[in-house]
Amino acid sequence: MSKVENWRALLGGRSTDEVVTKALVRDVQLPYGAGTMALITLDNGFDHTKPNTFGPNGLFALNGALSEIAERTDLAAVGVTGKPFIFAVGADLKGAAALATREEALAIGALGHHVFRRLGELAIPSFAFVNGAAMGGGLEVALHCTYRTISSGVPAVALPECFLGLVPGWGGTQLLPRLIGPAKAIKLVIENPLSQNRMVKGKEAYELGVADAMFEPADFLEESLRWAARVVKGELAVERPAHEEDWDKTVADARFLVDMKLRGASPAPYRALDLIAQARTASRDEGFAAEDEALADLLMGDELRAGLYSFDLVQRRAKRPAGAPDRSLARKVTKVGVVGAGLMASQMALLFARRLEVPVVLTDLDQARLDKGVGYVHAEVDKLLGKGRVSADQANRLKALVTGSLTKDAFADADFVIEAVFEDMAVKKQVFAEVEAVVSAECVLATNTSSLSLTEMGAGLAHPERLVGFHFFNPVAVMPLLEIIRGAATDDATLATAFAVGKSLKKSSVLVKDAPAFVVNRLLTCFMGEVVSAVDEGTPLEVAEHALDGLGLPMSPFALLQLVGPAVGLHVAETLHEAFPDRFGVSENMAKLVAAGKPGVYRPDFTLDPEAVALFSGGTSPSTAEQVRERVLAALAREVRIMLDEGVVAAPQDIDLCMILGAGWPFHLGGITPYLDRTGVAQPRFLPPGVASLPA
C-alpha cells in the first residue's frame, strides 16, 4: 500500500463533512508560442463567501491532478489559481479539530507536504497566480511553486496559524524565510498573527518579496500568463535578492519580543521560531519532517481548541449579535453630532466620517477646545494621506465633513448624537437635556459612558426611549468592540439603529444590559481590584504585578492602570462599589495615587516610580504570586457567574467576545469562560460540555 493510500485509509473517515476543494485542470496555450500550460483552478463549488480550504479529500484531489500532469510530456508549465476572489485560505479547521490521535495529526501534515511539494519538484516550472485571498495552506501552495504572481486587489495574504495555536505546517516556516529572509518571514508568521491577526494586501505581499510580479485585477490572469510565457521562453529572468541579515540574531531578537508579549504562555509562536531557525541549514526533508512533528503536537493540544473557539466567536457570533432587533427597524443616519472635542470625541468624529461618509459636527464649551478637536481630525487625515490610506480627494472630503460649533443648534438636523464628556452623571444629564431641546423627535441619543446607569441618565428626558449606550474602547479606530447598552426605556428602533451604525463603523457589537460598568470594565475592575487589594495588604507590588504573567495577557495590571489613568480606574471602582459594596472595594492607596497626581506607578521610561510605590506600602499580610493568581481567577469566576445570572448578556460566549475584543483577553486561551472551566476555577461550569473546546 502506497503512502497516499495509507493516508487515505487513516484520514478518509475524518472528512465526511468536508467541503471538498476540487483541482480543475484545463490546458491553456501560453502566448508567444511558449507551449501548453496545465492550469489548475482550485474551486469548492461555492461563491467567495465560502472560501477554498484543504481537508484530506481536497488534498487527495490536488494530488490526483498533479499525478496526471506529471505523466504528460506535452506540457511547458503548470499553473495554479483560485476561483473568483479566492485563491485558498488554508486547512479545513473543523476537520483539524476533529483529529483524534497524534497519528492522524502527523498524517495530515505529511499528506499536505507530499502534495504541495510536488508543485516545486515537477520536471516543468510551476506558477502560482494568486488572484484572491491566500492564507495559511493557501499561501503555502503558492510558496511551493517555482514562481508567483499576485493581483494588486488581493485583500488578504497571511499565515495566521500562530493566532490559532498552530504553526504553518505545510512548508511555510521553511520556504518563506528562504524566499524573503527571516525578518520578513517572522513578520508574516509570528508578528502579524500576534497583532490581532493582521493581514497584508497584495501590494504589500509583493513588496515583501512573496510574489515575483504584480498585475491589476481586471486582466490579472491574462497578464500573468503573458508573464509566465516570457519566463518559460527564457526572455525574462526572475531575480530574487540575497538575504545578508544575521539569521540567528534575527530569530533571537524575535524570541525576546515574543517573550515580552506572551511570557511563555503560548507554545505555537515559540515552535514557529524554532522551525524558522532550523530553516537556515535544514534540508527540505528535515524541515518538513520538523513541521510535521510540531503540527502534530499542537493539533493535539488544548490551545488549538481554545483558538478555534475564539475564532468562531469573532468570525460568526460577532457578525450576528445576540438579541439585536430586526435591521429593518433601523433609521437612516445622514448626519452625526458629537458632544465634546477631547481626544475620545475627536477619534469618534474621524471614525464616523470615514465609515459613514456623512457630516459630523463637534461641539464644546470654547473655541480653543473646538479648534483643537477639529485640528486633531484634520491631522489624522493628513497622516492617512501620507501613508497612502486615502487619496488627496478623499482626504479633502473627510476634512470637509468634520466641523465644529460652539452651540448645539448645529445638531438640529442630526440623526445620531453621541456624548463624550466627563464621566459624571449630572454633566451627562445636562448635556442630553440641552441636546434633546434642539434635535428632531427621531434623533438617536447615544452615550459613551463606561460605567454609569443609562436608565438614570435618561430619567429626565422627554423621550428616554431613544437613549442608547454606545461604548467605544480606546483607541477608537483600533479596538474592535462596541458595547451597545439597552436602558430600561430604550426602544427597538433606537437599538436597531445603534447596531446598524456599529456595523457601518466595522465594529463588533455586543448587546449588554444596563448594569454597572457593563461587561469589560466590570471584569477589568474586578481583576484590578483583587491585585490592588493584595498590594494594599502587603504583597510587594512587583509580585502582584507579575502574578498573572503565565496567562499571556497583553498588559500587566499596573501597566493597564497606567494606560486608562488612575483617576478613571478609581472612578469605575467607586461606581461598582456603590452598586456592589460586598464585592468591589475602593483602595485608599489608589485614592492617594490619584490625589498625588501620579499617572500610575511607572515613570515615562517604564521603571517603577519609588514615590508611587511607597503610597501602597504599609500592609502586613503579603501573598505569594500563586495566591494572587488564584484570588484573581476566583473573583473573575464569581463575577462572571453573577453577570450571567443577572442577564447582563445573553450567553457566556458574549462575555468571551467582549473580553477578547475589548480587553485583549488572549485568543489562545479561548475566552475567559472556557479558560475558567478548563482550569477548574468555575464551578459549576459556564459552558455546556464540549463547547469550551470546540467552536460553538
Using DSSP, what is the number of strands?
17
CATH architecture of the largest domain: Alpha-Beta Complex
Average pLDDT, all residues: 93
- Multimeric organization: single chain
> How far do the termini sit from each other?
39 Å
CATH class placement of the largest domain: Alpha Beta
Kindly name the structural category.
alpha/beta
Strand order of the largest sheet: 12-11-10-13-14-15-16-17
Our Rg estimate from Cα atoms comes to 28 Å
Spans of at least 5 consecutive residues with low confidence: 692-696
Shape: globular
Q: Number of helical runs?
A: 29
CATH superfamily of the largest domain: 2-enoyl-CoA Hydratase, Chain A, domain 1
Number of domains: 3
CATH topology label of the largest domain: 2-enoyl-CoA Hydratase, Chain A, domain 1
Measured by DSSP, the beta-strand proportion falls in: 5-15%
Q: Fraction of residues in helices?
A: 40-55%
Instruction: Describe the largest sheet.
Output: 8 strands, mixed
Description:
The chain is of the alpha/beta class and about 700 residues long. The chain has 3 domains: about 5-300, 2-enoyl-CoA Hydratase, Chain A, domain 1; about 325-515, Rossmann fold, CATH 3.40.50.720; about 520-645, N-(1-d-carboxylethyl)-l-norvaline Dehydrogenase, domain 2, CATH 1.10.1040.50. The chain is built from 29 helices and 17 strands. The strands form 3 sheets. Strands 12-11-10-13-14-15-16-17 form an 8-stranded mixed sheet, with helices on both faces. α2 (about 55-70) links the parallel β2 and β3. It is globular. It starts with a helix and ends in an 18-residue tail after the last helix. The relative contact order is 0.07. The model is unreliable at about 690-695 (pLDDT under 50).
